[in-house]
Write a structure and sequence with these properties.
Blueprint lengths: L3 H5 L5 H32 L7 H48 L8 H43 L1 H10 L2 H36 L1 H6 L3 H53 L7 H42 L16 E11 L5 E12 L2 E7 L5 H8 L7 E6 L2 E2 L5 H5 L2 E5 L9 H6 L7 H10 L4 H4 L18 H12 L6 E5 L7 H13 L5 E5 L11 E5 L5 E4 L1 H7 L1 H12 L4
Parallel strand pairs: 3-8, 3-9, 6-7, 7-8
Antiparallel strand pairs: 1-2, 1-4, 4-5, 9-10
Helix pairs in contact: 2-3, 2-4, 2-9, 3-4, 4-5, 4-6, 4-9, 5-8, 6-8, 6-9, 8-9, 13-15, 15-16, 17-18
């Protein structure tokens, strides 16, 4: 009934559950007290022979108003505690999820976005509604049972016998509920992923006139989600019906028994006690009835929570405590790597190389040869199968990630610019950067006109997906931002891919200029960018790495020569 793994996520916030449960118990006693005062007032109201009737009624009404006021204040306190608890949980969970990203292999964008928003909202209900109600539902019937024992033990026992039927129905439904909610979330994530995929590829769908095909796929996914949603609703309706039958049926039996006892003058000799049982009888079952209603939210939240936990519990990218002041050399020794899936595919096979400062290294190879995988290893997105990597003679896994990342720069063909001003994009790398500095770095990449020819200046806003920039302008702006801080190791992963010749020339010129006091790894499909490199690494079709200068590789490797000749014949060199 309680997921210990999810409760452990609460840490110090568990105290709020205790507050909420205690306040709810106090509210229960106040409700019982109000009911007693109402019955007490009625007893005086109908006792016309008593001379103090009017005074006692006034006293009872004032007492009821006072207790009701206290109850309202406590109810507000409960709501505030729940809201405060919810706020802390939402912040903690989203912070934990966000901090985890980048420390493991990449997750699907659609899954992260849905779990980070809707998933955490549902998990929040699990914490703020279900768990407090669970503990309250355990305590409240015991309190009411003790009270009813003093009124009529037969009624108390009847209520006690009926009570377990509600949790029993919950337990019987839980196995089916977990299964159906797992399917529900899988369908939900699949639908969201399909929609995001269609949105990202909207232009291609229009150009290929394939929108109807994708639309059919979206309709099918939506229909699957609708069907599973209906199953969830049917399950909830069925479960609620059973709980209502038990709750109100048990209450009705208790009321009938109490009336019978009063009629036969057995154990109960006061109609006001019978009235108390009638008014409070349902209260005996309501905590567990509310738990049953919260159970459905709990199952939804628990399923989402387990998926979030799967991400949070993923093994972090290995790191140690060694702090790098600088990066002087990077050494790969007999490194092999393959992707872990149903059909493991060898990507890099026993490769070795050394990177040192003041040199520019080119990395080329056939599509699928392992260039991108090598880059992922270098930026700690993937972990090698065997071999070892050393930075300044320190094992890669023993280096503190923050100190490593602070010494490297990674620019790829799909590097991201935020939907914000030029100034704020620069501030991400240097918070106190001045307009003069920004203009200086923009001039280096021949992009200063973005500031000088726009009335907004550095407050010129980059639109979503950099849609108001050309591909070349986007890459040059990304390069300008990364030039603000000097790094020891620069990785350019197809940074000149699919851009205009002017931008490619500008970027290539700057890349070559950066090798002074730095290590440059230039990954490119175009040999034009790397023919003048100090050393070229070529990954062949067998996933081995061959090293040498351009002329050496032409003479000793037929695959390299073939690609080089094709590009030369095509006028790309």
């Amino acid at each position: 009934m309680i997921n210990k793994r999810l409760v452990e996520l609460l840490c110090k916030n568990k105290i709020y559950i205790v507050y909420i449960v205690i306040l709810n118990i106090i509210l229960l006693f106040l409700s019982l007290f109000i009911t007693s005062l109402i019955i007490y007032s009625l007893s005086f109201f109908f006792d016309l022979r008593n001379n103090n009737t009017s005074n006692m009624i006034i006293f009872s009404i004032l007492s009821i108003l006072l207790v009701v006021t206290i109850r309202i204040i406590l109810s507000i306190l409960v709501d505030r505690n729940i809201n405060k608890f919810a706020s802390k949980i939402l912040i903690k969970l989203r912070s934990d999820l966000f901090n985890k990203l980048g420390k493991t292999s990449k997750e699907k964008v659609s899954e992260i976005s849905q779990l980070g928003v809707e998933g955490i909202e549902q998990l929040n209900l699990y914490y703020t509604v279900y768990i407090p109600q669970f503990f309250y539902a355990l305590i409240a019937p015991i309190i009411l049972f003790i009270i009813f024992l003093f009124i009529n033990y037969i009624v108390a026992i009847i209520f006690l016998i009926c009570i377990p039927l509600i949790p029993l129905s919950i337990i019987l439904m839980s196995k089916y509920a977990k299964k159906i909610f797992n399917v529900y979330w899988d369908k939900y994530i699949k639908m969201g992923g399909s929609f995001l995929d269609a949105l990202n590829g909207l232009k291609e769908l229009k150009l290929f006139k394939a929108s109807s095909i994708k639309g059919k796929e979206l309709d099918d996914n939506n229909e699957e989600f609708r069907k599973i949603t209906m199953k969830v609703l049917i399950m909830q309706l069925f479960s609620t019906t059973i709980m209502d039958l038990v709750a109100y049926g048990g209450s009705a039996i208790g009321i009938v028994v109490s009336l019978y006892c009063y009629y036969n003058n057995y154990l109960i000799d006061s109609f006001y006690l019978v009235l108390f049982i009638i008014l409070v009888g349902a209260e005996f079952f309501l905590p567990l009835r509310s738990l049953g209603s919260a159970f459905h939210m709990a199952m939804n939240g628990e399923t989402a929570g387990n998926k979030i936990l799967d991400i949070l519990n993923k093994e972090n990218i290995s790191e140690g405590e060694e702090v790098l002041a600088s990066i002087d050399r990077i050494n790969f020794n007999n490194v092999s790597f393959s992707y872990k899936d149903d059909n493991p595919k060898l990507v890099l096979d026993d490769i070795s190389f050394l990177l040192t400062k003041n040199k520019l290294y080119g990395l080329v190879g056939l599509s699928g040869s392992g260039k991108s995988s090598l880059t992922k290893i270098l930026i700690k997105d993937e972990k090698i199968d065997k071999g070892d990597i050393k930075i300044n003679d320190i094992d890669f896994d023993k280096i503190k990630l923050d100190s490593y990342y602070s010494n490297i720069c990674y620019i790829s063909y799909d590097s991201y610019l935020f939907n914000d001003t030029i100034l704020n994009n620069f501030k991400l790398i240097k918070e106190d950067i001045s307009e003069e500095e920004i203009l200086h770095y923009l001039k280096l990449v021949k992009l200063d006109y973005l500031v000088t020819k726009n009335k907004e200046g550095v407050n010129y806003k980059i639109k979503e997906d950099s849609s108001n920039l050309s591909g070349g302008e986007k890459q040059r702006l990304i390069l300008a931002i990364n030039l603000v801080k000097k790094r020891d190791f620069y990785i350019f992963d197809e940074a000149t891919s699919s851009i205009d010749k002017e931008s490619e020339d500008v970027i290539r010129e700057i890349i070559y200029s950066l090798k002074k006091d730095s290590i440059i790894l230039f990954i490119s499909h175009s040999f034009k960018n790397i023919v003048n490199a100090d050393e070229i690494f070529f990954i062949d079709s067998s996933h081995h790495l061959i090293k040498g200068k351009n002329d050496e590789l032409i003479n000793k490797n037929n695959e390299y020569k073939k690609i080089y000749d094709l590009q030369k014949e095509g006028g790309l060199l």
